[in-house]
Amino acid sequence: MIREISITEIEGVRIGNAQDEEAKTGVTVLLFDQGAKVGVDISGGGPASRETPLASPITADNPVNAVVLSGGSAFGLAAGDGVMRYLEEHGVGYETGYAKVPLVCQSCIYDLGCGRADIRPDADMGYAACVDARKNQPLMGSVGAGAGATVGKLCGMERSTKSGLGIYAAAVGGLQMAAVVVVNALGDIYDPQSGQKIAGLRSADGQGFADTCQMLYQISRRQDLFNSNTTIGAVVTNGSFSKAEMNKIASMARSAYGRCIRPVGTMADGDTIYAASTGKVEADINVAGTLAAEVMAQAIKKAVQ
Predict the structure, then answer these.
(1) Residues of the chain with pLDDT under 50
(2) Is the four-CA dihedral 207, 225, 143, 52 of positive or negative sign?
């Protein structure tokens, strides 16, 4: 009933990446050609974000032009300036009467501990990701915002596992759904089907995995955890939904984080999911939300593979 498709089959969205190979950081951009109804779900305690109130159901119902995922922690929010510049040059944005203002949401991971901390995504890198999106041939792995992603960091970077950017898309009948995710979690990663641990905190001898949850339980008093974490992503559908409904779909997609990441949504994470509607296919919101969780789970698996 569910069939895998290519994310490029979903009309109205183009995806591009740009990265600095040496610094291990980058940008992934989702451009919505005709704008998108966008919702958001934030479950982590430390999100680095830009313009996320645009996705709130209580703000103006204007179409969002792009969602940006980047490295660089809060420094990486500068990449959004380059995305805005690209969109303005192409006549894209909300008409204010004096200028078209592109509406761009963004979230960042903390990757300053992987590669170089003094080089972060900037406006030029954001612009370059938009140029790459013209091809709409998105790659996975250590590219774009996934260039510096790692998982299993309770005991520091030396015992973490390299992760990256994952993409997965599927369809049920005429309803299409895709997920793009950067997995940079404090916790360990599990296969959503088998339940087997596939990435995360390595054992002290480096011969296998340790259990982050069990080690977390050994913390006897309040302390600051290793804070270089956050799993950020987006689901995109050709289904026709309101902004309020897209917020619900984003919250349903979050169940994939619980299936695949343990622990998840801690105060040391900034976990965020955007949900964007670019099409006109009529569909049940429960079906869409369930499918969103499924593709997100598969994308998380792809990110660490």
Answers:
(1) none
(2) positive
